[in-house]
Write a structure and sequence with these properties.
- The protein is built from 15 helices and no strands.
- It is mainly α.
- α4 (103-122) packs parallel to α15 (298-313).
- The two termini are 30 Å apart.
């Protein structure tokens, strides 16, 4: 592959994923999250915009590594997904002062960028090919990848992590055990997958992204002809079917299920397409914006960004 072709793929994937992050955070009123008409104390909409700019080059680098895999210059276990995630988090932290804005999205989108690079280097893009390549990327991760992701989490300092029964990220000895016992990143995410949807997406080949979020988003884009409506409705659809694991870790599964039921009711009332749906959505947004952010469906936002990334990689343009 020529240098020009490599650069073109890298830039294309970078732009697609950056746009996905920007569209996700801009969608409003996205209940309980930062969006263009609502901020958190200390974390504002512009912090997410700056983060999207900061992480874009790392998505491009991930795509380049995927191209190298396709061309036989790298093995899958040499891609260094964990290192790219860590570097993206460092970039996110360096470019804004709002704290952790995109950790979950980065963890989902970096392997997708690698898989997209491989897919595009193989010929015409397809979602089916991307998913197959994505599975190979995540399953080929190494203990060094796991240690790098632990570093990334320590840098981002996300709230509501919970505590793992083994290899807990807060345990200083975990990194040494990972290397000694040769535990890959995929295996680490298997441990946390029961209580974290981002981890679960990694080890189950992204069923929420591919089977729920992306198809529903595509249908909404066709029906509403409005990316804001489609994005908010996709957020609600994911939330209605998959109780947000960040809320569950902070307040318990019962509260998370109540929020999911409210999201489902809003969609049944028409969401942004009806006056009653809009009123219910605005009320839910206000209720979920509690001062301690205990009811922030942050994981759902990450999953929505992943669904948007798929749509954009597959040709959607706002």
């Amino acid at each position: 592959m020529t240098t020009e072709a490599l650069a073109e793929i890298s830039q294309h994937v970078s732009s697609c994923l950056q746009l996905a992050v920007l569209l996700e955070v801009s969608a409003y009123p996205k209940p309980g999250n930062v969006h263009r008409t609502a901020d958190f104390q200390g974390t504002r909409y512009e912090h997410f915009l700056a983060s999207a700019v900061a992480v874009a080059p790392h998505f491009g680098h991930a795509a380049e590594r995927g191209v190298s895999v396709s061309c036989g210059r790298l093995r899958l276990d040499e891609v260094e997904v964990g290192k790219i995630i860590k570097e993206a988090v460092l970039g996110m932290s360096a470019w804004q002062h709002g704290g952790n804005t995109l950790l979950g999205s980065i963890i989902l989108l970096v392997p997708m960028a690698v898989a997209a690079g491989t897919t595009l280097a193989q010929g015409k893009f397809s979602v089916v090919k991307l998913r197959k390549n994505l599975k190979q990327v995540t399953e080929s991760t190494t203990p060094l990848d796991a240690v790098s992701v632990y570093d990334a989490i320590e840098i981002a300092k996300p709230g509501g992590l919970g505590k793992a029964p083994k290899l807990d990220v807060g345990d200083k000895s975990s990194r040494e055990k990972i290397l000694e016992e040769k535990v890959g990143l995929f295996e680490v995410f298997e441990i946390s997958s029961p209580w974290d949807s981002v981890s679960s997406e990694w080890v189950k080949n992204c069923p929420i992204t591919f089977n729920i979020g992306y198809p529903y988003l595509t249908k909404q884009l066709e029906e509403t002809k409005d990316v804001n409506t489609a994005t908010v409705h996709t957020f609600l659809k994911i939330l209605s079917e998959v109780p947000d694991t960040l809320i569950a870790r902070k307040t318990g599964s019962t509260k998370a299920k109540i929020v999911s039921a409210q999201a489902k009711q809003i969609l049944e009332m028409g969401g942004l397409t009806t006056s009653k749906g809009r009123k219910m959505l605005q009320e839910l947004d206000r209720r979920l914006h509690d001062s301690k952010h205990q009811l922030n469906p942050g994981t759902t936002a990450d999953l929505t960004a992943a669904a948007l990334a798929l749509a954009i990689l597959n040709g959607y343009r706002p």
